Amino acid sequence: MSAFPAFAVGQQAATGSTGAFGVSTSSVNGVGSAPGAGSTRPGETFHRLATYPVFLNAPADVDPADETVAEISAISEDGNTLVHTDAAARRIGFLDISDPAAPRGLGSLSLAELGSQHDEPTSVAIVGDYVLVVVDSSTSFTSPSGRLDVVDLATRTRVRSIDLGGQPDSIAVTHDGAHAVIAMENQRDEDVLADTGEGEEGDLPQAPAGFLQFVDLPSADPATWQTRPVELDVAALSAAGLDTPQDAEPEYVSINPSDTKVAVTLQENNGIAVLDVVSGELENVFSAGDVALEGVDVADDGAIDQTGSLEAAPREPDAIGWVDDEHVATANEGDWKGGTRGWTVFEAATGDVVWDAGTQLEELAVRVGLHNDDRAGKKGVEMEGLAVATLDGVRYAFVGSERSNFVAVYDVSDPASPRFVQVLATTNGPEGILPVPARNLLVVSSEEDSAKDGVRASVSLFGKGKRYSAAAGSPAFPSIVSADVRTATGASKPIGWTALGALSADPAKRDRLWTVTDAAKSPTSILSVSTAGQRGKKARPVVIDREIVVTEDGEPVGLDAEGIWARPSAKGRTGGFWLGVEGATGTENALVRVSASGRVEERVSLPDGVAAGLGKWGIEGVTGTVDRTGEHLFVALQRGLTSDDGVGGYARIGRYDVATGEWTWFGYPLSAPTAAGDWVGLSEVTMVDRDTLAVIERDKLNGPAAALKAVYTVDLPRRASSEGVTMLDKELAIDVLPALRATNGWAQEKLEGLTIGGDGHVYAVTDNDGVEDATGESVFLDLGKARKLFR
C-alpha cells in the first residue's frame, strides 16, 4: 500500500496540499492523510520540552557508566511525579515533572533490596497513594514466578507484596481504580526446543502456559486487594486460529474507556483476546492476521532500496490500546515468526481489520532520515509501543518505533481513517508511551543504554499546544525531510537519505544547498537541499528534493564522503562537485571530482608523507575558490598526523592548486579535550572570503557530556611556504552547542556540515551515523547571517 502520493522533483505536485513537512500530500488508497502531511491545525503541535538521561538519577554509589534504563512509566494522580521501571538496574526511578521542561530526579527504589538479585520490574501503575510494581522474580523459564509489590508513593516503603503465581509482563488499571489486570506471560526460552522436541530453538509450546491475573481493588487499603487468576480457554484460542493455542503467552493489556473490557495481546500466538473486566469472562478472541508488504527495504546492505517485498507474515502485536469502546489498535512488533512494520486498528467484537498502516511508517522513517538499514532484513522500524488517549478533546494514538527511535502521532477520532499528525524524535529504543491528558503531556521512556557509545536511556517529555510553545525545542523535529520521487517500479517513495556529513552552497541558486551521504549509505548519494520557505513564523523543514547517485566506470559506487564543494560553472569548468573522501587507511583518502550527473572523473591522492601520517581519521571537509590564477581547494584533516604531533596539538588544513597539483599545508591548533578518553578534531571547512576559512571543531561527546561544538575562523597568510606547515591563529565565531541543546533532545555528537548559502545565511547539519549507536536524529540549523557572524 502506498502511503505517500507522487512528488515531482523540484516542484509541488499538481494535486494535494502542502503539509507540515512542505511536501505535497493527499489521501491515498483509503489510508487517510499520509505521514508526509502532518498537521497544520493551530494548537495541535506537540513540542519537545526536555530529555532526561536516567543515569543522572542513579544512587550516588553507582558508577554513572553502569547500565540503567527507562522502560514503562506511570504518573501520580496529580500529574507531577513520574515512576519508571529499570529492569537493568532492578530499580524503579522517580522523577519530578511538575515543570516538564526541567524534570528533576527524585532517586530510586531497589527491588533487589525488597526481594533478591533476580528481581526485575516489568511494569508499573499508580493507584491513589500507591505504586503497583509488577516484578519478575523467575530464576528459570520452566519455574516462572513473580509478585505485585505495593509501594507507598510518599515514603517509598513496601506496604504489601502479592504473589502472582508466574512471570508477569504488563499491568493496566481501570480508570476508576477498582480493578487491575496483569498479563502473566510465562515467556518462552529462546535457546531451547519446544516441548515437542521439534522445530527450531525458541519455538512453542513451552510449558507452563501464560494466563491473566485480575486484581480487585475494593478500597484504598491494599490489605483488601485480592487476585483472581484467569486461564485462557485453549479451545477458544484454537477455534480462532491462533498459533500454538495450548501455550498462550499474554504480552500487553489495556482497558477500554468505559472500564468494562480488557484487551490482551498474545504476541507469540498472534492473537488478541477481549475479556470482561469484572467477571474475567472471555468475550472474544481473534487472530491478528497476516500482512504482506510491497515497496520496502528488505536487505541490510547499506542501500535504501524501497522496491523490495515481504511475503505475508503474522503481525504478532505487542502493545495494544482502545481507540474507543469498539475498536483496539496494536503495534505490530513481531517476535519469532512475524512483524509487519506497522500498526493496525481492529473491531474488538469481530476481529475485523478496519485500518492498517501498511508501509506508512517505513516510509516515514526514510523521509525523516531515521531509516535503520541494519534492521531492513529483519523487522524494519519494529513498532513496539502504543498508547491511546484524549488530549484537548481529540483522540490520539501514539505509536513508537523501537529501532528507528521515533513516535508517530495520529488523530484517531475516526478509527477507520487515522490521520497522521506529527513525528516525534526520541532517544534509542522508545518502549513506554505515557500520555498525561490532564496536563496535555506525552512521556516517552527509552530503554537502550550504552555509556561507551554515548547512548543513554532517557525520559523524553512533549507538551501539546500553545501553552508549551515557549519552552519548545528549536528547531522543531524534523528540521530536514525528503520529497517523493518515482522508483524503478513506478511507486512514489521518499528519497532515501542518512548520515549527512557535509554541506556546500549552490554557486548559482541562493536557496539551494548540496550535501552528500557518507559510508553509512552505499551507493553514495549527492543530495540537493531546498531552503526555500525555511525561515519565518511558519518555517518548514528544508527539503531534500533531488538525488544524484555517484558512479564510477558505469556502476554505482560507495565512498566515505565527508566533504563536498559544488563547483561554479565557467569556461573550462563544467560544474559538478569535489568530494572529500575519507579512507580506511591514510593512502585511501582522496579528493574526488564528480560530474554534475554523478560520474567520478578524477581522484587526487594526498601527498605520500601526509597519507603515511594519517590513522583512521582522515579527510573531513573540502571547500574551494576560483580566482584569476585558477581553482583552489582546501581540505580539513580531522586530527593531527603521527608525524606532526601525534593525534593532538594541531590538525592540518591543506590547500591544493588544481592546475599545478601543488599542496600547501597549514596547522590548526586544536583545543584540549575536556574529559578522559575524549578527543577533539575538525569536521568541516568552508570559505568565508578569499582569505578566511571557517571550520567546525568538535569533541567526541554527546548528550549532557557534550562540551565543544563550535565554528572557528582562521585567516590565511598572503604567502605560505610550500615546505613544512604554517601555523594559523583561530578565532571563535559561533558556539553551536547552545543551538544543539535548544532542541531539548539529545545533544548530537557529530556536527559535521557547514556552509554559507547564496542567501548569506550560515547553515549547519549533524551526521546521524545511520542510526547506528546514535539516536539517528539529524539537526539542520540556520545559524544566522554570515555578515554578522563572521566579522
TrEMBL record:
GO molecular function term, any single one: DNA binding
Entry annotated with the keyword DNA-binding: yes
Record key words, sorted: DNA-binding
Cross-referenced Pfam families: choice_anch_I, Phytase-like
UniProt keyword DNA-binding present: yes
Domain of life of the source: Bacteria
Choice-of-anchor I domain ranges (all copies): 69-290
Gene3D superfamilies listed in its UniProt record: YVTN repeat-like/Quinoprotein amine dehydrogenase
Annotated ranges, domain Phytase-like: 496-769
PANTHER family (alphabetical): MESENCHYME-SPECIFIC CELL SURFACE GLYCOPROTEIN
UniProt protein name: DNA-binding beta-propeller fold protein YncE
Organism of this sequence: Promicromonospora iranensis
